[in-house]
Amino acid sequence: MDTARRTVALINVLCEQRGVGADAVKAVGEVLVEYGELEPLGLGEGDLEELRAAALLLREVFAASDVDSAAAVLNGLLGGVQGRLRLTSHEGAVGWHPHLDSDDEAPWGEWFLASSVLALTVLLWDRQAPPGGLCASPSCPHVYLAHGSGPERRYCSRRCATRERVAAHRRARGGAHSEEARSGGAHSEGARSDGRA
């Protein structure tokens, strides 16, 4: 599940950080370290383009409308993976874990795509449902992981959900206020609250 969470965090930061400058490298590097990558990362501006390309491919899994569509996207991505499934500990530096990229020192983009496809494939297999979705807020480009049972999730965060609820409430109230203004209001002449004309 940590790999899937890292996938979401990287897709989201790569979608936010459009450039390839030092700030973008730093933001992506912080996510990698947060999810267990060892420093020094050796991450450069050229790596961001590969990572961003992988993020856009992975985003299609989250955009899938149903489990069959998500599986089709994952199967397509699995078909393009360059390595064979293997276990590695990076010469004892970390615990044993699976890799699907071509080499333990594969380029960042290849590693990100392969490890993420593997994690999302396992989630789909385990839950028999899409691994997540796109935030329903029109102003948010983020993806999110589904949490399994419970009501279907639509937003990447409580913040987005709250912002959209408040906006919907304001639109509804604005419509009510507009209707009231068109009809002359509840307390217009001839419709006084005390019943007198």
Automatic annotation (TrEMBL):
Ranges for region Disordered: 167-197
TM annotation in the entry: none
Zinc finger CGNR domain residues: 134-171
Protein name, as recorded: Zinc finger CGNR domain-containing protein
Pfam families recorded: zf-CGNR (PF11706)
Record-linked InterPro entries: ABATE, ABATE_dom_sf, Znf_CGNR
Domain of life: Bacteria
